Amino acid sequence: MIDEELILTRTNALHIAILYLSSMTVGYCLEYFVGIPNLLGSLLTGILLRNCGVFEDFNLPDKFTSTVRAMSLSWILIVSGIEIDISKVRSLSLRLMLFPGVVEAFSTAGMAMLLFNMPFALSLSQGFILAAVSPAIIIPYMIELRKKGVGGSCIPSLLMSAASLDDIIAISGFSVCIGIALDSSDKNLALSLFVHGPVSLFLGALIGSVGGVILAAITQVSASWQSTLIALEIALLMTHFCETINFDASAALASLSMGAVANIMCRHPKVFKFSKCSCTDTVQMHKVGKDISAIWNIAMRPLLFGTIGTAFDLDLTRKDELFKGTAVVLLGLAMRVATAYFATSGSALSFKERLFVAFAWIPKATVQAALCSIPLTMILKSNKPEMISWGNQIVFTSVLSVLISAPIGVLAIQGLATRLLTRGEHEKAISPRSIGSSRSP
After folding, report:
1. Average of per-residue pLDDT across 224-230
2. How many whole angstroms separate alpha carbon 39 and alpha carbon 51?
3. Pick from 159, 102, 213, 165: nearest CA to 413
4. What is the DSSP string of 310-369?
């Protein structure tokens, strides 16, 4: 039986088509001609369509937007998991993925409590949403830097290995905090911490690990397109299962774990030497990652950032909320840059290299767009009307973080790379167009 909430009227279908086509067009035009990430163009398109006044009521069905965000999050995190290379993780990348994000999460949480009177657990869940860096922006630029010989192989490899791992910390912290914030049972605090802490994290990792084993085994006996479709289906099944058992936030960690476990099995078959499958084809696994990345870029990215933009209603936004949200974002970025700089102390990196790493650690986009609506959705499901305004504020602040951090981060990488990093013998100028051609989530 089809969910009635997913049935679209002609007006809804027309709005979705307009949003998709305009979001796709504007995103790629801005990337090609201006050099800013296409996802930022998609976000701006959604904001413009909602607030330009051309359409009397440019609203999309809530069920449709929540489905788009759930699918986008699970699929992009599979790609991030596949791209994680555990063998390249060093103590420096561990410090970089841990300290800046955690410091930013707690500093923005404190500011949100002060400015919005938001409860600590809910404000910290917002903090971890804001703290996630965007591999979709950082990794393509680091690949281009490495090709041109800028920063040698050290700086790009450091940032690429830490970018995907940074999301693990942010998503894990978010899963714990949002569960505690919206726990409506009569459990005491210690039990609530246990259920939404270790239990939630373990459940997400366990479900994702099972999915990763299945994906790795199927990858060895199927064509890449078949493995891709199966991976997408498994991700949706895991998301639905987590929502059914009321552990919504565990779905993100499950998707990330599935990609990482599948990649580990293909890289290190001895880990599962009892398995009858010969999981040694890493090329096939990365083809699956590229296929999912292509589907995400073509189908999901314009819809995800476009729908997030349509939630940004300027008529309902007070100026004080805009200033407060901007203050939260800027404080978090300042704390993040400073912590990232000090996190690289004691390493072999020079002052200029450490400064570049700190500013390159700014861009936010994908995780914010995919996670920002989850608190509001869970608040509505939990029947807590007194928290709806805080849920809307989380969406608003997350959109602001993308609008502020994405262009600043891109400009910092483009402008500081040739000034702060050493150049290879055959290094060329960084081209925004070449960055766009190699972009993947």
Report:
1. 83
2. 19
3. 159
4. HT--GGG--HHHHHHHHHHHHHHHHHHHHHHHHHTTTSS--HHHHHHHHHHT----HHHH
